[in-house]
Amino acid sequence: MIIGVDVGPTGTDAVLLDGGGTGGVTGGSRALRAVRVPSLPGDAVGSLVAAVEALPRELRARASQLAVGLRVADRALAERAGLAHVGVLRIGGEAADTVRPLFGWPAELRDAVCAGTANVAGGGGLGPRDGAPLDRDAVARFGAELAGRAEAFAVCAVFAPADGTQEREAAGILRAEAGADVPVVLSGEIGSLGLLRRENATVLDAALCLLVARVADELTAALPLLGLAPGAAVLVTRHDGTLMSLDHLRRQPGLSLGSGPACTIRGAGLLGGVRDAVVADIGERRARVGALTAGYPQEAGPGGRIGGVPVSLRVPELLTVGAAAHRDLAEAVDRMQPAAGRLPVVLVGGGADSVPGRALPGCDVVRPEHGGVAGAFGAAASPVGGHHERIVRAGPGRRLDAVRDEVRDLARAGAVRAGADPRRVRTLLEPDLTVPYLPGALLLRARAFGPPLPL
Amino acid sequence: MREINLDNLDDIARGAGILGTGGGGDPYIGKLLAREAIRKHGPVRVVDIDEVAPDATVVPVSGMGAPTVLLERVPNGGEELAALRALEKHIGRAATHIAPIEVGGVNSMLPIACAAEAGLPIVDGDAMGRAFPEAQMVLPGLIGVTNSPMALADDKGNTIIVEAVDNHAAERIARAVCVELGCQISAADTVLRGDQLADGLVPATLTLAERLGAAVREARAAHSDPVAAARAMLAGVHLLTGKVVDVSRRTEGGFARGRARIEGIADEAGQVLELDFQNEHLLATRDGVTVATTPDLICVLDSESGDPVTTEGLRYGLRVSVLAARCDPRWTSPGGLALAGPRYFGYDVDYLPFGS
Question: What is the CA radius of gyration of chain A?
Answer without folding.
Answer: 22
